[in-house]
Amino acid sequence: AEQEAKAKADKEAADKASQEKADQEKAKQAAKAKADKEAADKAAQEQADKEAADKAAQEKADQEKAAQESKAADQEKAAQAAKEKADKEAADKAAQEKADQEKAAQAAKEKADKEAADKAAQEKADQEKAAQAAKEKADKEAADKAAQ
User: Fold this and answer.
1) What's the pLDDT tens digit per position in 62-83?
2) Residue 1, SS3 per DSSP
3) How far apart are the first and last CA of the chain?
4) Radius of gyration (C-alpha) of the chain in whole angstroms
5) Of all helices (H) and strands (E), which one includes residue 148?
6) Cα separation, 74 vs 71, whole angstroms
């Protein structure tokens, strides 16, 4: 009986030891799985953070590019407007000069016409005077001859 009791106690002790070993192994396994999961979660988080940072940087670059393009378009529009203004001013100036030249030419023509008319009137007056003088001379000669 004593032998049996000892064997039973040894077996229980061995069972208990093997149970404890199994429990430790299980706990060790669970701790490793937990650590692996935490590492995987951390890596996933870091990846997500990097992607968010990349996306933000890309958006900023896109905004800057859009602002740059908008600025360039505004400058081009302003340059176009300035060119159109300069072209219009040049055209206005040319039109004004042409009008001034035409006015001067018209005035010169009117002056020449007036001078020609004055000269013609003067010549006609001179001719009439000469004709009058000739007629008076002829009349006087005729009268002198008659008196003679």
Assistant:
1) 999 999 999 999 999 999 999 9
2) coil
3) 217
4) 63
5) none
6) 5
What is the model's pLDDT at position 1?
A: 87
Which pLDDT score, from 0 to 100, does residue 52 have? Answer: 98
Exposure string for 23-32, b = 16+ CB within 10 A, e = fewer: eeeeeeeeee
Q: Which residue has the tokens 């219009």?
A: 88
Distance, CA of 37 to CA of 40 (rounded, Å): 5
Tell me how far apart the alpha carbons of residues 145 and 148 are, in angstroms, rounded to a whole number: 5
| DSSP, residue by residue, 2-58 | HHHHHHHHHHHHHHHHHHHHHHHHHHHHHHHHHHHHHHHHHHHHHHHHHHHHHHHHH
**102: exposed, middle or buried (Cβ count in 10 Å: 0-12, 13-18, 19+):** exposed
Q: Which residue has the tokens 């590492």?
A: 39
